[in-house]
Prior knowledge:
This protein has helices spanning 4-14, 44-49, 76-91, 104-115, 133-138, 159-167, 182-185, 188-195, 197-203, 218-223, 274-286, 291-300, 327-339, 359-371, 383-387, 398-407, and strands at residues 17-18, 29-31, 54-57, 70-72, 94-99, 121-123, 147-151, 171-174, 210-214, 228-233, 240-247, 250-257, 260-269, 309-312, 317-321, 345-350, 377-381, 394-395, 414-418. It starts with a helix and ends in a 16-residue tail after the last strand. It is built from 16 helices and 19 strands.
Amino acid sequence: MEKIEEIYRLFQECGEVTTDSRHCPKGSMFIALKGATFNGNAFAAQAVQAGCRYALVDEAAYADPACPAIVQVDDCLQTLQQLARFHRRKLGTRIVGVTGTNGKTTTKELLSAVLKQTYRVLATQGNLNNAIGVPLTLLRLTEADEVAVVEMGASHPGDIRELVEIVEPDYGLITNVGLAHLQGFGSLEGVIRTKGELYDYLRTRPEGATVFLQNENPYLNEIAHGLRCLRYGQSEGLYVSGRVTGCSPFLKFRWTADGTSHDVQTRLIGAYNLDNALAAVAVGRFFAVGDEQICQALATYEPQNNRSQLKQTARNRLVVDAYNANPTSMRAALLNFRQMEAPRKMVILGDMKELGASSGEEHRQIVELLKTCSFDRVVLVGPEFAAACPPFPTCATVEQVKDLLHQDPPRDCYILIKGSNSMKLAQLAECEDL
């Protein structure tokens, strides 16, 4: 069976897709995907026994003619993606596509919070923003959903082009472009070109398309030609203008549109979140969400998943930003933390991954920045920071950090914890010595 129309008919009987044989809701469709260490085809029969109505496989050895519930296709991943696009076209839901080097998950969450004040909204769960997560998001769409906010990530050239051809977004938002995944992109120019693939797609839409543009970003301005741009930023006279009015520790800001201003006290750590919040204001106003509703949504949103979360312990206040790190976000976090009003400050930083040949220099630059910050205490974690020969204590692993803290536990400190997810610094949020 190859026609996507036939696969879609089976999907409609199911209404839900799973790619995990350990999670098989009754009546769902299992799609067998393959990875470096697993072959989902081997679990197709098990998925049917566990409750799936159908299981798609792409290896003949696992297709059982005696079991009509197991359906063979040429390529399960391609079928998943084609099925998602077909479903998206059938429903015609308005979709805002979001990408960017930093802040895309927070921005996606803020957009969703604002739009939910008026609409039934589907948004990407967590950071399921790759070639598997994006189609799974689209397949969750129902006729009741009025707007969708779909996050798209990239680590190699062409990644965004592949995703927008599945999502077919009506509107676009690139939060920013910066130094990340350089091992895959090769250079900042490669990052810009890849993120710009969202704009490239939107330019092909016959009816034209709207993008929400951070006005002060020169890279985005350069690649947004030929598009209708609704600009937000710190300059006056934009579609939405804003400025920081406080940040100790939570961001407080004032935004202005059509000559009217509003003050919002958020639960977001960091002045760098101003652009993310203004993006949500711009999208909300475009979709006719009321100003007071926008303010309410932004004021009550609380970050999750170790993204600039504030945690109060018995001894200290932790700023846990340990989900991801790259040179751009690391620098922004340190500069913001330096400005924060606090009696004593400590930072625990982990290596930044996937920087390729630039890794050594980027870690050295962060060490040089740290030398200018006058923090009361600095601990660096990982071989990349160690190789930069810093004048600060270094640890090879998070377990060594825990030992160091046990020997000399900090007290009455604000402590910034930031590093790539693989450094496992999020574990420190539960460390009893903090």
